[in-house]
Amino acid sequence: MNKEIIHLYVNMPGYTPGFPTVAAALESIQMQEPEKTYPAPFSDAAPAVIHIGPGVYREKLVITRPNLTLLGGGENRDDTVLVWGDAALDDMPEGDKRGTFRTASVRIDTHDFTARHLTFKNDAGYGCDVGQALALYVDGDRIYFEDCCLLGSQDTLFTAPLPLKEAIPGGFKGPGADKPRIQGRHCFRSCMIQGDVDFIFGGGTAWFEDCILFSKMPEPQKTQEIYGYITAASTPENQPFGYVFRNCRLDSDCPPGTIMLGRPWREWAKTVYLNCELGAHIHPTGWADWGKPHGHFYYGEYCSKGPGASPETRADFSCQMTDAEAAEYTIEKVLDGWRPI
To answer: What's the whole-model pTM score?
Structure first.
């Protein structure tokens, strides 16, 4: 028998049980973080929905309850904003810097989580001034975002797992440093994701469909050859799929030819764009190798269109995929049998 859905309301007069903040609603139903295994077992916790009224909620949130949905209550995703402003270069009381992985405005640390009609934001400032600043840290299996907006500068969205080892000691300081690495499956539909440098990064397997990827100017009036990189995947070596973008639109306010489609944070990175519309901001070579050995990472495009589509000038280590190769990238295969509703 299906368990009855628990409904909670934040800043929505007349609805009960009501709460003044998202954190208060979470606290009332929060559970211990589930064990991290793959594929994740389904929790027996009753499904819960937190309805969040329109407004700006300056709260740093950590979500550990499985079977949870956050639902924005406005007419548009811009009406309900979850925002915080931590940055990697912040000084900490113990004398060190905050570092990348303690900056997330919202950290999802559970399985079977859904968000709809919300904006997740980190407003710490430009990455060139404050360092990395995550709007969203996603660590779990079967995580789904629909009609959401993710706003940041450098490192807007992190999709776990972390790589097994840091390049610099202490580089992973934060909530995931000592946790088991699991290959979470994440899906983003009809979302807008904004940033400048490596603003979609990590080792997760993620499917992006009908999304807008907006590469924003990293600093006004600054002139440089490359303004940013959309992705920095760190796909584990034996994982067949990393980031897959299907029917997405790549926009920007940067000058023509100044944005790369991706670079490999780790050497087995995998990123593919299928039937995507590329603006003029995409650099003709498309991809950077970041000093990683060719033949390990995989970068592919299929039927790119728009002024940024330039198959004849793409980096020689990238692939213009055939019909047969592109046909292997279905949502069922990429997400290993999980198909979000």
So the answer is: 0.97
